[in-house]
Structures
1.
Amino acid sequence: MLKKIAFGGGCHWCTEAIFQALKGVSRVEQGYVASTGENSGFSEAVIIHFNPEAISLKRLIEIHLRTHNSTSNHSMRGKYRSAVYYFSSSQQEEAEKILQELQQKFKEKLITRAFAFQNFRASREEIQNYYKKDPQKPFCKNYIDPKLKVLIEEFSENLK
């Protein structure tokens, strides 16, 4: 049975390409996610539909943390919120526990937080599947390829 989780961190073009490359991920929806309270504004993100028997939530979160700047609270965090968006209270508990466990793999403090998923707005059709449509574009070469290199070096067993 498929589950879903949403991730925000960097450009959704980058995030989309990373998760599209993984075994166990059947669909990636690129767009903007809003949570609640002070995080109710939309921020670039993706919704991942995955098979937990093929790839665990822990592995997905670890990949997310390793492929965006999850320890930097830079000035663009409003547009690029570093987040795991959960869809249920049990998923919230699991995501928060995983984030605490994975903290020990990082020298600096993680800024990535678990937030309630509230709303989604899909990207324009012409920018969806950005990397797949033309991996030779300068943006892809300069920003997405280095992140995919991390996948190859650290998570090759999870690649399609």
Note: The domain at 3-158 is CATH 3.30.1060.10 (Peptide Methionine Sulfoxide Reductase; Chain A).
2.
Amino acid sequence: MGRLLQIAGVIAGLAGLVLQFCITIPASMEAGRSLLGSIVFYFSFFTILTNIGAVLVHVSLLSPAGYAWFPAFAGPRARTGVGVAISLGFIVYATVLARLWQPQGLFLLCDILLHYVTPVLFVLWWLVAGADGRRTWSDIPWWMIYPLAYLAYALIRAPFAGEVPYPFLDVAKNGAASVAVSALAITALFIGLSVLAVLLDHGIGRLRGKPATRR
């Protein structure tokens, strides 16, 4: 079951990422961005980066060649961190962002694949085969590096690019206080999901007869 979920995750993830790239770049250039600017725009979304991470986790574990190319994504800490991040993206999109636009056609297909299908497949895989029963509280600061680095990138890029990937990060429109509240709320959600991941990992470890490591 775990391997089937991984294969499905790779197929859905790659299909969504490639298709999104193919339709985003022309649309972005039509909107006035250069080719380079359009590529940077594409890779400026948390959803895109996190889905790439999820695909690399699957690929690194499916074959020796994948592991040789992407060993950093094969470890239990990394794959649990990706699981937390992709869960965050799923929740924020479903509760906040989905109502802000109505994608049609291929954009709708990408929306479903990247925001719903791949997160669900990844979390199911993690529950079935990805958890190892040895995650610790000290893993959480490591997982926090990715969303905090992304937040810093998005805020630093905004004045130069004149745009933000997500409307709640728009300091010019919403004000610094509003953006700070949004950032703190999402950070708190990420920490809550991280705590839940550690607890679930401990529970799965006990079910599999592996003692949890707590520190």
Note: The chain has a mean pLDDT of 93.
